[in-house]
Specification:
Elements: H1 3-14, H2 19-29, E1 36-40, H3 46-53, E2 57-62, H4 65-75, E3 93-96, E4 110-119, H5 125-136, E5 140-151, H6 159-170, H7 186-193, E6 197-205, E7 208-210, H8 213-221, H9 227-232, H10 235-246, E8 256-258, E9 261-268
Parallel strand pairs: 1-2, 1-4, 2-3, 4-5
Antiparallel strand pairs: 5-9, 6-9, 7-8
């Protein structure tokens, strides 16, 4: 797989599907000039850009060099390496690595931490997220808001039926990165692993809309949720079965539309 092309597909096709989630969370937490936000798994930076447009000082952390390169294009144009924006005070930072890499002795504590990548459809993601949050919470102030996101009930997520393709094709590997059914307590369990206190939750409609089946296949594949299936079979097979699974959601004009509901949990640091 071409990782650079997949990062571009994420940025241009898939990432925008979660904009209603970002907006709902930022509105609820009143994200603005007084906010210092740390985005875990920030990807190509759309959620960070939206927070920055509200006046927040933002730091994004991710392990994907290709996605982070796109985030820098959006937030730090002309700058290839991690740094603060000149003249921007604490500035905008894009950091490759774990949350620990975002620590700076001279920086004020973060007031909001976001983990917008939805957990639920991939085995092991609750434990993985719990570990990331445990690394991030020492960088925050007392009572800071930590936001976790996950898929809603399968019966309210049309994409759930498409994700079952990943589970079916990856079955021969029985890999920990394969798909699984979402659990209604996933977010609470991840928060508990990091010692966080739940402080409210919400649900947001995030329909997935695509120009055509090809765009839908590329967008969904860019999430990484089909990687185990591709390893177990091959990309041609995965793309073929994905296209077949998308057929019920294709409209007469060729566009693809899948209603989904996502859930978010707001937790607080000790």
């Amino acid at each position: 797989m071409d990782q650079r092309s997949r990062a571009r597909d994420w940025s241009e096709i898939q990432e925008r599907m979660l904009v209603p989630l970002y907006e709902a969370v930022y509105e609820r937490l009143d994200v603005g000039p007084a906010t210092r936000l740390l985005g875990l798994g920030c990807g190509s930076g759309l959620a960070l850009l939206m927070a920055a447009s509200r006046g927040a000082a933002v730091t994004g952390v991710d392990t994907s060099a290709d996605r982070l390169a796109l985030a820098r294009e959006r937030l730090l144009p002309g700058e290839r390496d991690e740094r603060s924006r000149p003249g921007g005070g604490d500035g905008t930072r894009i950091v490759r690595g774990s949350p620990r890499e975002a620590a700076r002795a001279d920086a004020p504590a973060y007031t909001v931490v976001t983990a917008f990548e939805p957990i639920g459809p991939r085995a092991g993601d609750v434990e993985e997220l719990g570990g990331l949050l445990s690394e991030a919470t020492p960088l925050t102030g007392r009572g800071a808001a930590v936001v976790l996101a996950g898929w809603g009930p399968p019966e309210r997520c049309a994409t759930a039926s498409v994700l079952r393709v990943a589970a079916k094709l990856a079955e021969p590997l029985r890999t920990t990165g394969g798909a699984r059914a979402a659990d209604r307590d996933d977010l609470e369990r991840a928060a508990a692993r990091a010692g966080l206190r739940p402080d409210g939750s919400g649900r947001v409609a995030c329909p997935f809309g695509y120009a055509d089946v090809d765009s839908a296949v590329r967008g969904l594949r860019s999430t990484g949720l089909f990687d185990a299936a591709i390893t177990a079979t091959d990309q041609v097979q995965v793309d073929k079965e994905l296209a077949e699974a998308l057929h019920p959601y294709q409209r007469p004009d060729g566009t693809v539309w899948m209603p989904n509901v996502f859930r978010y949990l707001i937790a607080r640091t000790p």
